[in-house]
Amino acid sequence: MDHRPPRQRNVKVLATLGPASSTPERIRALHEAGADAFRVNMSHGTPEARAALIAAVRGLEAETGRPMTILADLQGPKIRIGRFGDGPVRLEAGRRFRLDLDSAPGDAERVEVPHPEILAALRPGHRLLLDDGRVVLRVLAVGDAHAVTEVVTAGMLSDRKGLNLPDTVVPTAALTPKDREDLAQALDHGVDWVALSFVQRAEDVAEARKLIGGRAALMAKIEKPQALDALDGIIELADAIMVARGDLGVELPPELVPGAQKRLVAAARRAGKPVVVATQMLESMIAAPAPTRAEVSDVANAIYDGVDAVMLSAESAAGQYPVEAVKMMDAIAREVERDPAWRQQMSFAAAEPEPTTADAIGAAARTIQQVLSARALVCFTRSGSTPRRVARERIPVPILVLTPIRETARRLGLVWGVHAVPTRDVTGFEEMVEKSKRMALRHRVAAAGDRLVLMAGVPFGVPGSTNVIHITRLAGDELSRRRG
Fold first, then answer.
1. Would residue 78 show up in a list of annotated catalytic residues for this protein?
2. Which of 64, 264, 426, 478 supports an S-S bond with 431, CB 3.0-4.6 Å?
3. 3-state DSSP call for residue 65?
4. 451 has which bridge partners?
5. Residues 417, 228: Cα–Cα separation, whole Å
């Protein structure tokens, strides 16, 4: 068993794996630099390559004894235009441009959109964003299997560029045939989280949850304006959300993205669901050994808002400085959490408890910790629901989670402040107290003389039964007795 203490921060770092971080040695280096969890992007690579990444992370878990968290990120229904006959074309502002189902190569007047359901959903006035918003069209008229548009923002357009539809509810399933194959592979290889891309409505989450069947936790990626309108239902059905600022920043005016991010973080925290902020956080470190000051501020602001995790994408997957990017993220997080203003912000932003036993326990733990200056919380759990609710309180001390279910420990790797340890369950109250003391010392979350706040359920071993909160103190001779 690994006895290393928790990292000296509460927010987690999620690092994407890819060509720059595909070997066991490099993955180990990312973990040692500060990566708490690993993202496998199912959009890229072969099934064999992705399986190798998952196996490498599991190998690191076996080597270190620490539960390792793996997120499989599904590609989703990425919409692309067809091809052009004579290379890239330039679309001029004010000119007409036609989208249709004709598979013939396109030109400066038309191109194929091989999605009849998309064309059928368009209405006059809808905006179409091509190539990440570099070219903007507005629909003038729609007919049978075609749409006539006006070029609003001119630019060059080449084969197979992406198409975003910020004003259109796309009548397509959130899971494509490729996603279903990738999901089956990811579940067969034992990933802990699945991220669902381009979520538009709660029904998308429900469909994915049914397919997953409890074999992994489900994260809904918020990257379409339509998801903002259906946010409450999405958060209710998902286990976590990701603020995916890449496509969200294309489909929303960029000046609206910071406010949307803050609303999403606040909504997830109120619901007691983990929230990850992702995309372009340290973008310049793809090619440079240090980030810009603006990027550092971006990461810091997300941490001040109380997110559970911050994510690296191309920085760790394909960049020239993957380990340095993780170290920088780790350093920013530690510095923010040393700031007294951060603790004050966490206190002011505490969510109001709901009338449930779990929320009452969490709120009580927060008050006890503050009044007694308890050094750590210890939570016994099988399902992980209690530590997730306790984490919602953003109590600025470690949450040592003891669980007999390794899968639960892995899934908690994206939850704020949690240090999860797989261990044998307890069967009685005195055993619970003694084990809490022993494990707190072993994992160095507390020392002789410190108080601990313990949470558990009686009868022991029953999921969802947390109903006990207990305060104990590590005696002055506790450490020497344990060593003896």
1. no
2. 426
3. coil
4. 473
5. 27
Q: Omega before 225 cis (within 30°)?
A: no
Q: What pLDDT digit, counting tens, does each position of 367-408 carry?
A: 999 999 999 999 999 999 999 999 999 998 999 999 999 999
**Residue 327 annotated in active site:** no
Pairing of the two strands 96-100 and 89-91: unpaired
Strand extents, DSSP E, 53-95: 69-73, 89-91
Structure tokens that stand for 424 in this block: 């044998």
Q: Is 39 among the catalytic positions?
A: yes
| Active-site option among 16, 168, 279, 466 | 279
CA 350 to CA 380: how far, in whole Å?
Answer: 23
130 neighbors 157 (Cβ within 8 angstroms)? yes
Q: At what angle do helices 24-33 and 322-338 cross, to 10 degrees?
A: 20
The domains of the chain, with CATH numbers, are: 12-77+173-338 (3.20.20.60), 89-164 (2.40.33.10), 357-483 (3.40.1380.20)
180 in catalytic set = no
Contacts of 24 (CB under 8 A, 6+ apart): 56, 59, 60
**CA distance linking residue 257 with residue 260, whole number of Å:** 5
* Pair of tokens at residue 301: 């602001």
Among the options 110, 221, 392, 410, which is catalytic?
221
Could you say which of 80, 178, 215, 406 is catalytic?
80
Exactly one of 9, 12, 39, 388 is catalytic; name it. Answer: 39
Decide: 338 and 9 in contact? Cβ < 8 Å: no
Using alpha carbons, list the distances in angstroms from residue 244 to 226, 287, 380: 14, 22, 33
The DSSP result for 10-29, as a single string, is: SSEEEEEESGGG-SHHHHHH
Q: So what's the pLDDT on residue 2?
A: 59
Model confidence pLDDT, tens digit, residues 51-86: 999 999 999 999 999 999 999 999 998 899 999 999
